[in-house]
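Late entry, written up from scratch paper. The run itself happened at the end of the previous shift, but nothing got recorded in the book at the time, so transcribing now.
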Amino acid sequence: MKKLLTSVAVVALVYLASPLSRPLDAKPPIKAETYKQLELFTEAFERVKSDYVEEVPDDQLVEAAINGMLASLDPHSNFMNKKNWEDMQVQTKGEFGGLGLEVTEENGVVKVISPIDDTPASRAGVQPGDYITHLNDEAIVGLGLNEAVEKMRGAPGTDIKVTIHRNNVPQPLNFTLTRAVIKVQSVRWRVEGKVGYIRLSGFTEQTQSGLDKALAGIQKELGDKVIGYVLDLRNNPGGLLDQAISVSDTFLERGEIVSTRGRRPDQGERYNAKPGDAIHGLPLVVLINGGSASASEIVAGALQDHKRAILMGTQSFGKGSVQTIMPMPGGNAMKLTTARYYTPSGRSIQQLGITPDIEVQQAKVEEVGTPAGIIRRREADLPHALRNTDPGAKQPAKPGDDAKDKTSDGKTPDGKTPDAKAPDNKGAGADKAKVDSKTQDPKAGTKGQDAPGGTAVPPAANGDATPQDYQLTRALDLLRGLSLLQQSKATN
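Output as recorded:
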């Protein structure tokens, strides 16, 4: 049996590899009343077989009945036939086919938890919280989640039209996505000045090894100059429980990481950190948002409760339950919610999510130009201004020596465009949805994309942390400020 920490996914259902303390296959005795209810089901089954307008295979009827029973419990319990179960086991290894979406069901509508990095869905601009209403112009509202997922799957290279309703957008958005073989690169890293930036897009079997390589790479590049780290868990839908525990343990010296509690007292488990902080107590900022779910929330909650990291961003998704995979006859399996999980302080985040220590909404940073016709003057521009006589002091440029002061439209007050090279705005529209257009070639990789183990990514090489990333900018500023404060204390 396996434990899960994620919701049903279009392309990836990842589970938690850890047995429950008490065998779940120890079946309780069946009451006499239960047999009467089963007789009712048998009667309905026979009526359908004999009187329904079309003949339906027995296995299809039984599978639908089991699915209906599990779907009535909660959004995360479901039945997996042999094919779905085999697909799921492949997906946790970090490679599968599809669109690159993690989804759940809300009031009969398929809701996006998070697009997966560098996939057709993320490149097209699908966002957490989007509602999928139509596939190839066919309504899927009210369709079972598994059926909707099956419709979105298909051979790599084939197209599918996805219609989305987005909050605060009056008109539906249509995306033409090209299915692809999805390779989850769960770890990326790069250096931002003296800060190590690490992006975790999921928790697969490769995550901890990729994190270890990322830390080693940052240490090799910066050495003793590193002043802190940013751990980016935004739009990370979750994954394997053992990987979430291991990632948390990487930054903790001691204490509880997470606990799970089932219906019975003997089903509870606690997971604790082992001695050793891989970054030796350096400041750590964790970025989260509404697409951070499940295993991501375990990591964020553990680091927050132990005051080991500052959480920045927006409220997380709020999935605080654990699912267990139970193999069944015929190569089938059942995914059943069996426990809730709790952060070290004993809080459940189910439906609530993790609240960041510093709330920062995502925003676009733009330089405010000087109003047209106005030239900003400084002390050095005034007639007969005293000169700076300090040895080695750089004298300010005189008016007209460099390009003239620019106005808000990028031109000089006389209306001419300066000769200076315009700032690079590459990637400025990365956050905008590409409507009614195909995605990039699914075989085309992103420049600087890492191998499964986790390698360096140049600055601005991917959409999750471009110069326009306001939340990341705030995190970097915070770490730089903490470093300056520590230097000031050391000097005094």
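Residues 84 and 332 are 8 Å apart (CA to CA).
(Scratch paper discarded after transcription.)
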